[in-house]
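Q: What structure does this chain adopt?
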Amino acid sequence: MNFWIFNYNQPNAFKKAWFIFIAVTLGSILLSVGIKDLKFDYDFEKFFPENDQESIFFREHRKKFESDNDFLLVAIERKKGVFNAIFLSQIADLSKAIEQKVPYVNLVVSITNVKDEKILPFGGRISDPFIHLNGDLKKDSIHVFESKELVNSLIAKDAKSVCIYIRHEDYILKEKSDVMLAQLQKLIDGYHFEAVHIAGRTIGQKLYVEKMVHEMFFFLALSGLMVVLFLIFTFRSFWGVMIPSIVIALSTASLLGAMGWLGIPVNILLITLPTILFIVAMSDVIHVVSRYLDALRAGMTKVDSISITIKEVGFSAFLTSVTTAIGFATLYFVEMEPIQVFGLVTGLGVVIAFVITMVLLPAMFYLFPSPKIINQSNEKGFWQKYLRSWYIKILRKRSRIIAIYGVLTFVCFGALFYIRNNNYLMDDLRDNDPIKKDCNYLDAHYGGIRPFELAVTIKDQNLNIWDPTVLTELDRIENYIESTYGAEIKTSLVGAVKVLHRSSNFGDNSFYRIPETKREVRQIRKVLRITKGGKLLRTILDSSERVTRMHGNFPDLGSIVIEKRNEDLYKFLENSPLYNKVEFRVTGTAHLFDKNIRFLTGNLVEGLAIEIALLALLMGIVYRSLNMIIIFMIPNLIPLFIIGAIMSFFQIELKTSTAIIFTIALGIAVDDTIHLLGKFRYELSKGKSKLYALKSAYLTTAKATIITTLVLCAGFMLLIFSSFVGAFNMGLLISITLFIAMIIDITLLPVLLTVFFKTKNK
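A:
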């Protein structure tokens, strides 16, 4: 690795070292200024692949109508019952205030402002409120519960809460939504209700981003503290803490600042970036600093110690950085923007950390005094004693070790096929999180917050959607969706027709059905076309009157349950007399999110295969030996099988946060293997025999392997303090994987080298 640093034996080495130190430090500080411009992004629609056919269909469908996810539900409780004059007056005042004072709100519907429309025979209308604040509330309650469209939509079945439906601007940006939500919360706080539950995309966006900002800087501070504590434990000197800390801090600040300068927002995956960078950068730093100190202990001069460190560790550090960067970069093959950004940004961060480490550390070694602790002892101490004993035991029991790992691999590989792929909209939140509690309440009392969307497209040119037989069949399908599928339909052509049919018969609930004659349907069609200037009709039927929708919501039951219900729904639709004339298609944001999480699995398998192939190719180029490729890959694939088996056994489901750990863990786990093989190769190049070279490499690198792995595990374990379940799972599972990889590197890898590595040296 001397090709990219200058020779510190040169006469002008001191000036060049200062130039490197100042240039790298100032450059990093300049980049870090961009941190102030960092933005945070929570837009789960970015998980939808751009060129996926279902994503394209949904975007086109949404253009015909409106967004299926731009609304807020505000459920307000009164445990003694909502039919109370004071309480309902407050709801009426609040609904009116929201409509008038909250910006970016287009529509507010509550039990107090919705009206029972009655159409007179000669075209006139009578609008009668469902709630008469100064009238007989008991009579009103009977009327409300006789109106099917209100129950579970604007009032709970137990009559202990009401729900205000707020429709705001479609695709509203966070800056606007923050203003809207702040004003909404201010109005709600002024009434001192018993309990209020709010859910919707904008409230999720606001609270997620707030959590992301908090956790980003929380983990930055926590990771920094962890780094300092481990450096104190490892090197036990002020020098051993400050020198590595400067390098690690500059690496992390440079990347975060670069993201700010380039306008790359922090998504929900990138909140783990500080932790990952701190611990990945620390791995190389520990290997470099440990070897430098060992050289000083052996009596070498400062310049010779720098030289031997770069020769022995530099190339291995280069390979580990390349392999780790490859591990992250292969996430680019997952066709989801947040994962691609996470992979590329983190891979770039690994490269930046390597460059700063290998350029700045030697300069700092040269410029600053060596720690006094170096000259206090030349003892090989604790590590050499126990590592030597462990090495001998491993070689004596190599047949048993191979057999144990062989059986373990076979069993774990079989368990991989039992990992479940499941997804919830509120996956990343813990059960005690206030947002999740609000969503659970709305799931239980108002049909859920998960959007449901069924697109209905007339294919047969001879079929008219206004034909009573067609509407009757659509009504039958809608009844199945509500009674068997489990969704509450809130907006549909069928629902509008049934309400207007009842209204045309002076509110008689027996007419809450599809009209039997074409003449009645034509009358209702005329009314729909003029209601709200035709805007109501356009939300349920496109301009060609050949595409309609059934929109509603249902509880967040998990993608496994919902996928089974979708299969049953399509089977039911296949038996419909309209099946060959009409296209029925489940779509919507929630459906696409589920579909793309399943799609993610295949993408990640492909990305993992590419990563394995690239790592094998890299090792083939470096070692020019098929045996070395096999020796390299075996210890690093087994941990993936084991962690997969653990996920299967403990029923940890495959989703975004858990699926990417295989790619990340492989990219990091190979580092220790590379360091041992690099040292082994270096010892062989000095003419040593295979066993002697292996022994020397093992005793030299095993200590750093154990320490760096513990650092990595401790670093990733910090993520268990995250309020996001995804970050928790990622931290826990990667820590376990890396620890298993370390055990395999110090037990199985030496055995594989003795058995499969061929050399002419004796």
